[in-house]
């Protein structure tokens, strides 16, 4: 529906966007910011977007980038508007739309932009530039349901939205046909040409649809790592039968990789995942097999033993050599980091072969607003006006600047604000069809004619039509609007009488400045304001304000203070554990604390807050007593904050709070005693000299701590942000089970808000850089800190060190990222583990840690996602441990758990992220 009404919005100057050429039917290539038509080195025809009337153009220069289409860009203001390109398409036809972004520091600010891109009302992706000289590319495959589509930029959070190129590529066949295509788009995550003979991608004209097949050698450094020994490139010049439609081009299928040692193993970072996706592999037998040679292999996905059963025999499945065979899954769930292996079967003499792979993520298609076609008719009356050019859906993903919408899944327009927009002619009659309208502001224009019948807008509360040239009478239908509270029609050319029924309504009515409009009688109700003259308006307004002040004036009431003072939050915390979470903290006396600690005899720790002592209560319970050493306001506030939080939250992975004491100038907190100290001491403290904790134990500690943080984020309302996560705040009990402690800096999230504005506090090395810059605290700030902790668990190094990371690096994040992205996991693994770990689990945690420490919060996973990855690693590690100890004949029983990555049977549309799948679809599909 969104595209249907957008067709009405197209000014003639934009219709060129649907023009195709004989050379590239169905192709559109827009050079954003360009000045002239040109053909590039591939033979693609580029058109400037100079008819797009918004934004500004900029020239950029980037080292090693000579393509003309990347020498310019178009950028837009960082405001609350969205900026849309509208393209003509053919309905019921599949397309690929591709947008690219090369920042090149065009604004000379060195502020990396971050903004959203959408296809119509559907959020497509968040563009977060992290390198001025790197091209960011987003691709989406969709089935056109309307004659136009709109690609919109909006929601800039840093820098300015911009666009370098916008391309449209039409498909002819049905390779991307899915049963979900009316409800989901396909976002391209990976399209890989294995065994490529160069780093250059394969695209047009080799691929007639101009898909970009990336060379595996280019992606290897940052994406394809953990490549199995014996992996070898092979190629042929023989023609490959790729059949018809949009199969991979012949040039892609003429190269491959072969596992000479019987295995092809890769780990692939999937943009946009975790989520449900479409994944297909492409095979063609391009080696000459001897009569006694057989190539059979299986796909092995950790955690999915059921998917590993079917065996591939390329020549047999494709019915001949040099023919394409393409098994895949139209609906499968993938993590962000995909580990996969093709392994030779026991009856095969040759290792596996792989030519190409495509993986796309399902993106839920959002239906447009319900009022789209109606408001399109209104906008078409003013097609040349600036405010009428915003394009896209009026409400989604962000509303037009002069429109407000409700929050329904399919929203309606609730407010129109077109004050002073030089509107002429009659009030558009289609406005009366907006059934959800609450406010209408058309004042300060040159509108003529009568006021239309608004009885179809029963929710209208505010109507502003003043300062126009309206004629005729006040329509009787205004009386029938039950919610009308403000009606301003002054300074028009209205005539007739104001009906007594309208005068008796409870509303603010101003009809002054209409020489021929009079009230029928002088009755004035006490529950409304009727303004008939400017003097009366002023007097009555002053009287109204005065009466409001008198009505609200009264005695102030002050709550009775307790020992903790005002700093104790009065906000109610709701726990999933019920009323137990709201029990008041126990108040110890100083004498009880002195008895328990033998007059503070045994010191067991210290920190910025104070000193911690060992104690034992009369019932034999061992306790840790933390004594506040600072009497500063800051220290007292942190004390009160921690008491307030801990007395209301309970979780097995949070250190149990037993009570407090605030007497004789002392501020004391009492906790359960954790016998094995802090995680920090076990990783790089004195305890490491005695014995190092194993990798499986480190994973279990990580799981425990993550569950404690997840509870704070999701189990409390409002959620709690810890703000000072670090290894010294993770304590270990007798069994080395972990609990999170120290809530002195924690903050309550504001319910419904995306962040909490806060003075930056935390610990260097663990501090979220985005929080440091913006002073806007979110749950993802804790995720960043936890990512640092994961890197410490892997490496056994501190977060900050002048010695451990080399001469030019002090930070564990920077150091670890260099090793992990280059495929060198061994370079960061703690030597004290002595190699006793499964390589796959180490990679899993390392890559999840890098996701946690992404520079922008929206790029980081939730704690729930982190927990799942840790739990998967634990299961795999336990299986590997069993094999190392010789206690299992069935590796998969331990290392693979059932269908974690297979879509479960669900109703399509029941969730934004879930697709339905039947038993047949769980098997590989060959087209």
Structure description:
This protein is an alpha+beta fold. It has five domains: 2-183, Jelly Rolls (Sandwich); 222-364, Jelly Rolls (Sandwich); 418-540, Ribonuclease Inhibitor (Leucine-rich repeat, LRR (right-handed beta-alpha superhelix)), CATH 3.80.10; 563-673, Phosphorylase Kinase, domain 1, CATH 3.30.200.20; 678-896, Orthogonal Bundle (Transferase(Phosphotransferase), domain 1), CATH 1.10.510.10. Helix content is 19%, strand content 26%. It is built from 17 helices and 52 strands. Strands 1, 2, 3, 7, 10, 13, 14, 15, 19, 22, 25 and 52 form a twelve-stranded mixed beta sheet that branches. The protein has a seven-stranded mixed beta sheet with strand order 26-27-29-31-33-35-37. The chain has a six-stranded mixed beta sheet with strand order 39-43-44-42-41-40, with helices on both faces. Strand 43 (657-663) and strand 44 form a beta hairpin. It is flat. Residues 1-23, 523-528, 533-583, 748-759 and 887-923 have low confidence and may be disordered.
